[in-house]
Design goal:
Layout lengths: L2 H18 L10 H16 L3 H10 L14 H9 L1
Helix pairs in contact: 1-3
Amino acid sequence: MNWMERLNERAELMGRMLDTIGAMSKVPTDFNSANKVRSAALRCISCQESENCRKWLDDHPDGAERPLAQCPNAELFNSWLDG
């Protein structure tokens, strides 16, 4: 997989995760939070759990209360949910 395919795949997974846990509308939009979102995207691109992530997302078509525990962004996403 080339870098652009990986970038697209991970953006799709991250978006699906945020939708699945109901956090998409809770992502902060202020300037300071933009850095956290960029860092989350970089963690997602570097993550070695993409197959587990995809399977977990496929197993939760009706949503979930929390992200996959192994997600490198779980703590951040949970903080947005707990906001």
